[in-house]
Amino acid sequence: MGASGTTNRLSVFGLATLLLVLLVTSGCATIIKGTTQSIPVSSDPSGADILVDGMLVGSTPADIEFKRKRDHLVVIEKKNYGPKSIAVVKNVGGAVWGNIIAGGLIGWGVDAASGAQNNLSPATIFVRLEKLGEGVQAVSSDSDSSAGIRKLNDLDQMRDNKQISDEEYTRARIAIIQKYFPEMIPKPEDLDAADTPTPDPDP
Q1: Which of 14, 58, 133, 155 has a CA 20 to 30 Å removed from the CA of 106?
Q2: How far is CA 96 from the centre of its chain?
Q3: Nearest CA to 41 among 19, 74, 13?
Q4: Longest Cα–Cα distance in the chain
Q5: Boundaries of every domain in the chain
Q6: Is 37 a residue whose pLDDT tops 70?
Q7: Within 10 Å of residue 180's Cβ, how many Cβ atoms?
Q8: 38 three-class SS
Q9: Contacts (Cβ under 8 Å, ≥6 apart) of 6
Q10: From the CA atom positions of the chain, what is the Rg in Å?
């Protein structure tokens, strides 16, 4: 086997190496971030029940693991106190928001399937519960948060079922967040800061 055979072997080796690199880097966020995010949850007074998406997961204070792939509704409740609802929403970061708002589409790939490219907001949760008067019944709080999370999860289901395109999903998600969770959208100055490279220190 001559030089041509050696060249062919090198070409195959190079292609295999390239494919391995692509497979590793495509899942980089999954490796670095993982598919869950720990969020500290606390309340005043402490000892309140923590419900995530309707399931009791602990009592305050506690570090709760949330799946990055979906949006969540957290309810904190304690006997004789009014409950508080908090939306925990997927936020892919200022630079990505800037790209989406500008009309760009993101290739989600492996990280989209796992949700590993998402950061959940807020990063910490603290609520101050209000004591109920004697004979007053506790009622569900913040119906807007509940409705917004339900719409976001329904939208995720539609995308997973291939009922809508990535572009339709992106536009609909932005509209829901703008309506129910406007505080989750980065300010223009935050987007600019995310796009500004950090200068190298002087040698």
Answers
A1: 14
A2: 12
A3: 74
A4: 93
A5: 32-194
A6: yes
A7: 20
A8: strand
A9: none
A10: 23
Answer for the pair 98, 187: CB distance below 8 angstroms, yes or no: no
pLDDT digits (tens, 9 = 90+) for 142-183: 688 899 999 999 999 998 899 998 888 888 888 898 899 888
Instruction: Tell me which H or E stretch contains 85.
Output: strand 84-91
Q: Is the Cα dihedral 38, 74, 55, 135 positive or negative?
A: positive
Measure CA 166 to chain center. Answer: 17
The residue whose two tokens read 């009922």 is 163
For residue 183, how many C-alpha atoms fall within 13 Å in the half-sphere facing its CB?
7
Is the pTM above the cut of 0.85? no
Single-letter code of the amino acid located at 202:
D
For residue 106, give the amino acid letter. Answer: I
The chain-wide mean pLDDT, for the chain, equals: 75
What is the per-residue burial (b if ≥16 Cβ within 10 Å, else e) of 16-40? Answer: eeeeeeeeeeebebbeebebbbebe
pLDDT in tens, 62-74: 999 999 889 999 9
**61: left (phi > 0), else alpha (psi -120 to 50), else beta?**
beta
Kindly report the number of other CB atoms within 10 A of residue 194's CB atom: 14
Backbone angles phi, psi at 113, to 5 degrees: -65, -35
